[in-house]
Amino acid sequence: MSALYLERLSEVASTGPPRHGLLKASFIPPKPVRVLRELTRYRKTLVQERASEVNRLQKVLEGANIKLAAVATDVLGKSGRQMIEALVSGAQDAQALAELARGRLRAKLPDLRLALEGRVQPHHRFLLERILAHIDFLEQSIAQVQQEIEQHLAPFEEAVRLAQSVLGIQATAAAAIVAEIGTDMSRFPSDKHLASWAGVSPGNKQSGGKRLSGATTSGNPYLRAILAEVAWAIAHTKDNYLSAFYHRIARRRGKQKAIMALAHKVLIILYHVLRDKKPYTDLGADYFDKLDSRRIERHHVRRLEQLGYTVTLTPKEAA
To answer: Which of 35, 129, 161, 191 has the fewest C-beta atoms under 10 angstroms from its C-beta?
Structure first.
């Protein structure tokens, strides 16, 4: 669809004649949001292409029996980049290549020397040179697109700031989320509608009164990917409500389902944060512990009362 056609659809959806409840308007965000969406999606594409090129680089190194990735965490860090450029220029001595290591990588010099003892052929050098040039080009393009995104973020500064109040959402993710869902939450009747549109709601396929599948519904793949990345980031944090929620689900249902449940939870929080224009307030890591203790307390009090006892609870004094 052309941008002009989408803009016209947006106008019709908001100001068109009444449809007497027979048709529901599709969610077509206003033009500034659509522009920001195109930019953030293109940036993601460039980042994915760069990741693919890095994988190709490692494959070429492996083909030349260079095991740099087994020793260095980042093969394109300062040390790794210098070593690869030295290989491209014709260097072969593993001892000399290992001496290019910097910082903490120097503590691994013996392993590094073994990892750099390869058989680099002329075609390997050519491929490494071309891949490095392409990675440089992609990094430059990503920086330029990011500058363009920041210029279009001015009208959404408040929404981006509110989104960043949620743990695990950094500036780049906040901009991408705002570009996908916009800032006007009145477009969605409820947080459940937004979650269903995004594709993070659990499925409810039934037949003959029997539930057949709980797989998530199809929705916005770009938003789902962003929310999943945010959920993985939160899962590696501690001492907060969202992390406690993830581990609570992961113990019973596994990590993958816990990540999707957490992505759903984050989107619900974002809906209310953007609708009410109030920053997120964490409930605390002990929220579920308190919830469980109250539930257990009520259960046992009720059971004792059913047996004919009058129950009076006296909290134990702290030692």
So the answer is: 161
CA 49 to chain centroid, in Å, comes to 17
Residue 9 lies in a domain: no
Cβ neighbours of residue 115 closer than 8 Å, sequence gap 6 or more:
66, 67, 68, 70, 71
Residue 123 structural domain: 27-152
Give the separation between CA 50 and CA 264, rounded to whole angstroms. 29
Question: What are the pLDDT digits (tens) for 17-26?
Answer: 555 666 676 7
In sequence order, the 6+-apart residues with CB closer than 8 A to the CB of 282 are 167, 240, 241, 242
Residues with Cβ within 8 Å of 230's Cβ and at least 6 positions away in sequence, in order, are 166, 168, 169, 173, 263, 266
The SS3 call for residue 240 is coil
Same domain, 176 and 135: no
Total tally of structural domains belonging to the chain: 2
CA distance 284 to 91: 55
Distance CA 163, CA 175 (A): 9
Q: Which two tokens stand for residue 121?
A: 């052929």
Q: Do 34 and 143 have their domain in common?
A: yes
**Tokens matching residue 180:** 């996908």
The two tokens of residue 49 are: 């292409």
Residue 207: what are its φ and ψ, rounded to 5°? Answer: -150, 125
Phi, psi of 212 (to 5 degrees): -100, -35
Task: Name the amino acid, one letter, at 65.
Answer: N
Six-digit token string for 203: 């499925």
Rounded to two decimals, what is the model's pTM?
0.78
What's the CA gap between 139 and 309, in Å, rounded? Answer: 72
